[in-house]
Amino acid sequence: MIKGVWRHWRYGDISCFTTDNVTHWFGSFMDLSRPLVDAGQLGRETASGSGSEVRHTSRTLSPGGKNDSACSEIAGDGLWQDGPMEVTTLAARPDLLPQIHALAEVWPEFMRQDGTGELYYPALPSWSEFVLAAIHDGRVIARAVSLPFAFGSEHGRSELPDDGWDAVIRWGHLDRIDERQTNCVAALEIAIDHDHRGKGLSARMVSALRDNSRRLGYRELVAPVRPSEKHLEPETPMSEYAGRTRDDGLPHDRWLRVHVRAGAEIVKVCPTSMTIVGTPAEWSRWTGLSFATTGPQVVPFALVPAHVDVEHDYVVYVEPNVWVRHDCR
Ligand SMILES: CC(C)(COP(=O)(O)OP(=O)(O)OC[C@H]1O[C@@H](n2cnc3c(N)ncnc32)[C@H](O)[C@@H]1OP(=O)(O)O)[C@@H](O)C(=O)NCCC(=O)NCCS
Fold this sequence. Notes:
By secondary structure, this protein is α+β, with helices and mostly antiparallel strands. Helix content is 17%, strand content 34%. It is built from six helices and 16 strands. A hairpin with a 4-residue loop joins strand 2 (13-18) and strand 3 (23-25).
């Protein structure tokens, strides 16, 4: 039985404490190999008999016990603040495919119109080991999708590409056709249904992607991250926005913060990560707005303005993202 659920603000970890005095841990932010707490403050104990497969429990002790906290690492299924939650692969649960596809509805219509996505989403079963779903109460409440690709100068790919999301999908797609040996995983998206947001699930999904990449033998997980709050200031250049930090040194943007807190390094902005084009009539259908004037136009939830060309009958939106790199080892 769960006695309490709380968030370890110092680390961003989330855990709960059960009546059998076992702390269950849901985030991966506390990396025991790094001195996040004074070495003298960190004790370790092994917990067992909780019903979950507890790998280890660590406790941080503070003078007087006022700020004591504890984290445990569990293998397999985990508890979560809304109850039991399991992260699985599409390979293990092919029956989840329709529900995984259905989560596309978290995106505004125009974001689903990037043609490059056609090389990936309809072929999800081909990457089923790299597609994760979080299940709660028998329902898929989140998806985290990724694909492997070959990275390195021998493949003419010495740097993460400026056209981030689009390029890495093309690379992974070509690698699959050519049956090329891959050595890196790209996270393409984490999407959580509206009812389960704001409960720390995103960190759990990042951690699951990293664990999954490691399980499949990869050392690196990269992601062209779409900063969650950038759409609130579409005129700000992404380089300025992504570099903005809080007093504690973590990124100002909450989604970039989740990655950095999980140990990711921010590599660079990919200025042309996604390109979405359509006629003004199509864009009106996707957004409910009118695109009747040539020039830049702000679109709700877009990270930068779209460019309208009425004379030539098109609108083009070029979305910048931010490459981050996670070490999976
Ligand atoms: C981005 C997304 C995955 C984040 O998941 P979430 O459940 O909303 O967020 P979490 O509860 O895990 O919290 C992550 C951070 O955001 C903050 N946060 C969560 N909800 C917030 C809100 N409504 N307002 C401000 N901050 C919020 C949390 O406090 C946390 O930051 P902190 O740990 O530094 O405090 C989710 O919102 C989503 O699926 N969005 C649509 C798809 C998307 O944009 N995916 C990411 C690009 S691929």
